[in-house]
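Issue: copy button drops trailing tokens. Both records pasted manually instead:
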Amino acid sequence: MKVTRFFKAFILFASFSLSAQTAQEIAKIYCDLDRVPDFNYSVLLLENIEKNGKSEVLEVKQYGSGVDNGLKNVAFDFVAPASVKGMRVLQLEKLKKADDRWVYQPKLRQSRRIPMTERTKQFGGTEFTYNDMTIRNDDEDKNVIVDANAKITVGDYSYTCWKMRSDPYKRSEVEYHYRVSWFDKKTYIPVRIEFYDIKDKLIKTYECLKIEMVKGKTGIEYPLRRKNVITNLKTGRKTVATVKEFVFDEPISDGYFTQNWLTTGKAPKGKAKK
């Protein structure tokens, strides 16, 4: 899996022909887009909204680095509210094998590796799962274009998309039977994803409510998924994720992507490898 499915910047590869692409090619481009920027830092607001309207906002700092042989490492630091403060998650992408994922629980004062069997569970008590926090590799699914010119409106914006069905080869590793995605033809970003169970019942939806063009420290411009929402149709609960602050292309210390940071929350100063 490719790390950090959402809250990341993506850049277009304009040299590809939009009219002749296969489903696998589109999926591969989407996977490859998370190779940039090399570094990203953001402050995320995750608002959990219950069916009765009651809500709670979590604040999370995210650190990302993708300069180690092109592999992406991501660290999440929960800073508020008090119930989750001190919780940290570390995701290290591996070449040709499953990513390493670790979580530190401050109440237990210990960290543990997250096994594949638990990656369908909630991420920090939100409606996002650990699987949702990744981009699936293009060869992990059988992808088929359902509609090459699908029109869809998400939030206040309308898009022309590739509508694609994706069936995972290893269904035991995910919490759904298959998913249907609408990939915006301008950015390759999925603006809506529907998740179905084995009975073809819609169980969860993801929507990108706002895509904003932003610039990194190097002047490169990226489309940023500024606001997203994921809804659990079984419970009526949803999580709205908003990027409050961000910095792209400014080197981040390698110390954030270590077991020492995971357990202490402290990263020694130092330049990241380029």
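Record 2 (pasted manually too):
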Amino acid sequence: MTEFIPPGTRFHALPSPFPFKRGGALHGARVAYETWGTLAADAGNAILIVTGLSPDAHAAANEANPAPGWWEAMLGPGKPIDTDRWFVVCVNSLGSCKGSTGPASLNPATGEPYRLDFPELSIEDGARAAVEVVRALGIAQLACVVGNSMGGMTALAVLMLHPGIARSHINISGSAQALPFSIAIRSLQREAIRLDPRWNGGHYDDDAYPESGMRMARKLGVITYRSALEWDGRFGRVRLDSDQADDDPFGLEFQVESYLEGHARRFVRFFDPNCYLYLSRSMDWFDLAEYAGGDVLAGLAAIQVEKALAIGANTDILFPVQQQQQVADGLRAGGADARFIGLESPQGHDAFLVDFERFGPAVRGFLDAL
């Protein structure tokens, strides 16, 4: 059981106990975060970034850690999220293995990792933990809360649970509820992990690690993160060179298979399987309709925010653009000046991580107008 914490990560201690939506509580828990820029005297220039399932808090290089971050092209001086103007906070998700307390963390009651004794995690729990960081930094109201993918769900939960906490919102490839297709994919990913004998009911270690299950889970994820258009353009039906081919008669034959294998192997030992299970399931459970008698649009309309932008890629099959359109429509029904942009990116759900030529101007334009 390993945690993967970038250098320069900062930590905020959560109130103890820290209760969870579905029951249970954490004692002595913490949230990992990083910051960029300078907080204004009135604390009115703060932006909160909440992330997808796997990223850490290191979204971009800063004084504490000059290594490039996972959103390096979007965040920094003169960039779309301009840290010459904005004070930016990025929080690692509660339940992760990247510094915030999660199933891989030590349970102070036992001195052993929580494993499956970790409380049932909801998106709302992560939202409340992120707000604890914001409050600890002396920020009464955010200029904007930005959420990518799972973070789009977390951002909406932040706004729902803490009315008035932000003047604006950018929802990037996110949603107000999980759709059946996305639930089905994540269910298969979790099943792949749980059926690996080395998962052992969550009781594994670095020597007996469920690598096969994690590899399969990651491959399934990567397939849905990109689009068929991109798979075609990048790989076509190109086969591996004979000296690269797998000796297994049913082994790797096409370049796309080799790409998935390489991508999976780079991931599996750098993310904890139990954390993956908990965070994945939290997305399936999230549904703003719970707050409005089963009507997701009414749930969105109950959120108090002045301006909003919902953007996504038209090729996204995991969080399709209809969901970002729904976010904009619902927030607009609640009185927000809300806009939707569907971008013609070939790169599917992962477009916000790579297609900066399209996503950068959209985010910059919105923030520049605040």
